[in-house]
Amino acid sequence: MAKIIVACGSGVASSELVVKHIVDFFDDHHITGVEVEATDFKKLPDILANYDVYVWIARPNEEIQQIVDQHRIASVNGLPIFTGQNPEIAYMEIITALKKMQA
Amino acid sequence: MDVLKTIVNYVLNLGAPVFVPLIMFIIATIAGLKLKKSVMAALTLGVAFSGMTLVVNYMMDSISPAAKAMSKIFHLSLNAIDAGWTGVAAITWSYKSAFLFFPLLLAINFVMLSFNWTKTLNVDMWNVWNKIFTYVVVLYFTHNAFYGFLVAGIQIVLELKAGDMWQRHIEDLTGMPGVTVPHFITLFAVLLQPLNKLLDFIPAMNRPFDSAALQKKIGIFGDNTVMGAIIGVLLGFGAGYSVSKSLNLAVQAATAMTLFPMISKLFMQALSPIADAMSDFMKKHFNGREVYIGLDWPILAGRNELWVTVVILVPIMLIFAMILPGNTVLPFAGIINLSFVVAALLLTGANLLRMLVLGIITTPIFLYGATYFAPIITNLAKTTGTVKVRAGQQLSWSTFEGPDFRLFFAKAFTGEWWAIGLSVLWLLGFVWLYLDQNKAKLPSQRYTASNATIAATPATKQPQPTTDTTTDTSLDDLDGLDFGQTTKDKVSTKNTTNIDALDGMDFGQVSKNKK
């Protein structure tokens, strides 16, 4: 099971919106076996290591970047999904990261 | 005619958890959603209402007796329980004319963009709720729906102008171009502006301050669950409970704090089809224009200063709640003061010391705002039937968003002279802020003492996303690719994997740690 995490201020609105978009995208393309979750920034450093892909809407700070590097988590810019402008770019980065794990 | 009236009344009387999902279902169907998705969206909304009712009631049942006992011991009057923004947003969405505010926002933004009065295209449809809430507040004071829509409209215009004014500062703070935050909470900067100007005279306030180290130390206290437990146990002791009873209260409080955001997520899931349809519509019409995409505030949340400030303000808010004469609100679910911090971050250009000083000074404003508006929130909860509030109890929101704007403008429309005066003054303050922000130095250049420190802060650093790895994986899935129908409207991304060839992939077995 591949796991994707999206983070925002309270883990409620923005991140959940992005999660919803990603899940819909996976549904539309019959992609299975991926869990997509939302959380808030305060919790993120504690749980990030458990995930495979981090989709961000605020640039990762030093602490987050360190965890990402250390645990070989793919970090993907989620702004294209969040703003709805060329979301395909972000989706492709996610898929690429997932396929890399499969290889 | 009578038949129609009966039907309308019958539907309205079904109660928010049934009535609002019904509207949701109709709108989603009109928006062209598949039946399965519209049913899901509508049902999820109903579940979200019922879920929020459960949690708010649970919270009130466990906290109210303790608050009462503590009030008695310390001779306080903390009878208003704090549902936070998540609770108030939930209740607001259940208001019967809530959905009318989507078209209102669209129309105003559409007109302003068409006439070049703004460059901001607000696609943040979630925060439509704070326009609805403003309407509810104004309606409560004036009993006039037109005034309600008018003030909500003024708010939308001001938000868009604020989006224009913040954009270059946000680009500097986050390194993300073309986005902005036309959020109501940033308008609190109007009140902060004169205070911030005074701080210019204090030399220590003009130096940059590194907050990354502090963030690591206080990180755990910012966690919802931990914070709930701490407040719970303190409240228990304050109420004179035994140790075992206090610990139980701690777990109950932690439960409520943990569940709040979980339920709120459901609202987002349910409302997203509408939000999508609306923002797609806007983007389609202004495609190719240079616009700033208006988003919710969390795009700023990568800044450490924001979190350090709100966590440090938590105990300060609790202390103020105890000592401020006349305060009735016991801070709980809304204790993280987002209503202040986003405006402060933008206004001060992420200067931690200034943010803290401004935060401490303005905390009483929020608590008194919460005290003042508690009857309105309580009334809203009662009329929508979402939450049971017992006699002698109130529901409120300790960090009530935009108390200044909402109070002045709502009262102005009841014809009270002081409010009209203050509203005019407030608007002048906004103009001052707008002009000042347009010429203010960018945050990274503002505090000149040591530019190097600022430049090195993590949030402005550009992390490298996975762009370098996107090209090498695509070749192995060329088998069975169909290029027949996908060339025309596909955005040419930098990799060659076809986005339609992904169907049926299964990632159930993969893990990143295999070797």
Describe this structure in words.
- The complex is a heterodimer of chains A (103) and B (515).
- In chain A, strand 1 (2-8), helix 1 (14-28) and strand 2 (34-40) form a beta-alpha-beta unit.
- Chain A is an alpha/beta fold and 103 residues long.
- Chain A has one domain (2-41, 67-102): 3-Layer(aba) Sandwich (Rossmann fold).
- The two termini of chain A are 14 Å apart.
- Chain A contains 5 helices and 4 strands; from the N terminus they run E-H-E-H-E-H-E-H-H.
- In chain A, strands 2-1-3-4 form a 4-stranded parallel beta sheet, with helices on one face.
- Chain A has helices spanning 14-28, 44-47, 62-70, 79-83, 87-102, and strands spanning 2-8, 34-40, 53-56, 74-77.
- In chain A, 48% of the residues lie in helices and 21% in strands.
- Chain B is mainly α.
- Chain B has one domain.
- Chain B has helices at 2-12, 16-30, 35-74, 84-93, 101-114, 128-142, 145-174, 189-199, 212-218, 224-238, 243-285, 304-323, 338-348, 352-384, 403-412, 417-439, 443-446, 451-455; strands spanning 80-82, 120-122, 179-180, 292-294, 329-330, 394-396.
- Chain B has a 3-stranded parallel beta sheet.
- Chain B is globular.
- Classes of the chains: A alpha/beta (103), B mainly alpha (515).
